Amino acid sequence: xxxxxxxxxxxxxxxxxxxxxxxxxxxxxxxxxxxxxxxxxxxxxxxxxxxxxxxxxxxxxxxxxxxxxxxxxxxxxxxxxxxxxxxxxxxxxxxxxxxxxxxxxxxxxxxxxxxxxxxxxxxxxxxx
Length: 128
Known about the structure:
Radius of gyration: 15 Å
Largest sheet: 5 strands, mixed
Oligomer: single chain
Number of helices: 0
Mean pLDDT: 84
CATH topology: Rieske Iron-sulfur Protein
Number of domains: 1
CATH class: Mainly Beta
Strand content: over 45%
Strand order of the largest sheet: 2-3-4-9-8
């Protein structure tokens, strides 16, 4: 794995995001509850720029005619077709088999890249 500096610690506030390019790879960095997560900016559904999507909450499972809203600030919604992902776990809200994936990459999902901290700088780790 090769280290690439992408941001300074504290630069992305809780609930915030930053898009960076490392070579030809576009990556979205998200501060989820104080922990920064890194995902490839490509939705598994149609390749849309998922990291540009709205960050919000979603409707939670509930009884008929009962509407419960939750997970505020943890849901990333793809701007093309509305697919929703939990930024904390990487799981697609409607289909747990579709998820944001950590390196090594498996086909059919968004990639999550590991991050490393050294002397206040965050590095994304990419293969090669």
